[in-house]
């Protein structure tokens, strides 16, 4: 049975007796770390998305990366073998531009600290992107772009010090690339914050403006958020009251999942995007405070997670461990040691 999304505390991963492509009408997919890493598709992503599309699931790509316009992202996806149109891509630049447009009159100039993605998103809202405080902008908008340097951050700082509204597309501290994990927009925002003592209004995941933008642009009725980050994708789903699928092709590790607070707990978990195509085993509460899933049994003994059984799928073992760990965390307020149990599953 597919669980209904709520903002109540989740104490175990959910189960679905149908493939997720049947249980949900739209997949709201993060990009970096889920569909691709840098210029390359992640293993199994292209084939899985094609199968999901053939099954009737709408695919929408929702990213906190504000550097590239939707048309560029769509072209990149298409080149990778994932056919996409610009309208299929929703980014934090669009969410940020909508927030800015609600603060200033139509046609206003806005100081941009970021790339072409922000410029085109502002133009879509009837705003004019400028690069200097000397051009008398009425607001500042900041998003990730590899070209952002000291001069851009200084210009933003001067504008923020003058009291201009400051909107950040997102505050992700890192961004996955083909070479590894690199600093994200959050590190650049932190520099302006440190220089000014001011906090920006943030538009991207996990905050409501991004969810609002996504719903407005996709019209999804039964959406499933798919992501690799607990603090953006999964928390964003929690804040929006929708279900989520966590994949382990990006930044999150199984160990981090075991210690996740309530707002970072996904409905489902899977190794990669093949998780969209299958049913998901549910977790059952057993006697003695133990939890079972797919032949595995997990419990907390003497402050340590213990795993028994011989299940065929190690991800079912992780589901059982999550149930035991989250229940103990909620009861005791401190994470339990799951290193040995994870090692038994090969994590």
Can you describe this structure?
- The protein has 347 residues and is α/β, with parallel strands linked by helices.
- It has 3 domains: 20-64 and 207-277, HAD superfamily/HAD-like (Rossmann fold, 3-Layer(aba) Sandwich), CATH 3.40.50.1000; 93-202, Rossmann fold (3-Layer(aba) Sandwich), CATH 3.40.50; 284-344, no CATH class.
- 35% of the residues lie in helices and 21% in strands.
- The protein contains 12 helices and 19 strands.
- It has helices at 20-23, 45-54, 70-80, 92-101, 116-124, 150-161, 185-196, 208-218, 230-240, 254-258, 314-332, 339-344, and strands spanning 26-29, 36-37, 40-41, 58-63, 89-91, 109-113, 128-130, 139-142, 166-168, 174-177, 180-183, 201-202, 223-227, 243-247, 268-270, 284-285, 291-293, 296-301, 304-309.
- The strands form 5 sheets. It has a 6-stranded parallel β-sheet.
- α6 links the parallel β8 (139-142) and β9.
- α4 crosses α5 and α4 crosses α8 (208-218).
- The protein is globular and about 70 Å long.
- The two termini are 28 Å apart.
- 53% of the residues are buried.
- Mean pLDDT is 94; it is low at 1-7.
What secondary-structure arrangement, pairings included, does this model have?
Layout: H1 20-23, E1 26-29, E2 36-37, E3 40-41, H2 45-54, E4 58-63, H3 70-80, E5 89-91, H4 92-101, E6 109-113, H5 116-124, E7 128-130, E8 139-142, H6 150-161, E9 166-168, E10 174-177, E11 180-183, H7 185-196, E12 201-202, H8 208-218, E13 223-227, H9 230-240, E14 243-247, H10 254-258, E15 268-270, E16 284-285, E17 291-293, E18 296-301, E19 304-309, H11 314-332, H12 339-344
Parallel strand pairs: 1-4, 1-13, 4-5, 6-7, 6-8, 8-9, 9-12, 13-14, 14-15
Antiparallel strand pairs: 2-3, 10-11, 16-17, 17-18, 18-19
Helix pairs in contact: 4-5, 4-8, 6-7
């Amino acid at each position: 049975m597919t669980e209904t999304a709520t903002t109540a505390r989740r104490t175990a991963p959910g189960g679905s007796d149908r493939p997720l492509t049947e249980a949900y009408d739209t997949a709201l997919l993060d990009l970096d770390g889920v569909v691709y890493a840098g210029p390359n598709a992640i293993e199994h992503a292209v084939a899985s998305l094609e199968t999901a599309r053939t099954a009737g699931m709408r695919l929408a790509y929702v990213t906190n990366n504000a550097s590239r316009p939707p048309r560029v992202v769509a072209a990149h996806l298409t080149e990778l073998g994932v056919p996409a149109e610009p309208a299929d891509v929703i980014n934090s630049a669009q969410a940020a531009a909508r927030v800015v447009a609600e603060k200033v009159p139509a046609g206003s100039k806005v100081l941009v600290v970021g790339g072409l993605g922000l410029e085109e998103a502002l133009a879509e809202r009837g705003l004019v992107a400028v690069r200097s405080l000397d051009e008398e902008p009425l607001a500042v908008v900041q998003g990730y772009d590899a070209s952002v340097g000291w001069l851009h951050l200084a210009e933003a700082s001067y504008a923020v010090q003058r009291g201009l509204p400051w909107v950040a597309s997102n505050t992700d501290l890192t961004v996955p690339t083909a070479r590894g994990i690199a600093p994200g927009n959050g590190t650049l925002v932190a520099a302006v914050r440190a220089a000014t003592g001011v906090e920006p209004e943030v538009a991207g995941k996990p905050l409501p403006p991004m969810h609002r933008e996504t719903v407005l642009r996709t019209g999804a009725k039964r959406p499933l958020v798919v992501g690799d980050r607990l603090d953006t994708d999964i928390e964003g789903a929690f804040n929006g009251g929708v279900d989520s699928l966590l994949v382990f092709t990006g930044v999150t590790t199984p160990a981090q999942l075991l210690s996740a607070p309530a707002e970072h707990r996904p409905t489902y978990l899977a190794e990669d995007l093949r998780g969209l195509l299958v049913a998901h085993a549910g977790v059952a509460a057993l006697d003695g405070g133990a939890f079972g899933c797919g032949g595995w049994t997990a419990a907390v003994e003497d402050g340590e997670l213990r795993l028994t059984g011989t299940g065929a799928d190690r991800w079912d073992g992780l589901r059982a461990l999550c149930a035991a760990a989250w229940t103990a965390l909620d009861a005791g307020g401190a994470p339990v040691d799951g290193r040995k149990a994870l090692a038994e599953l090969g994590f």
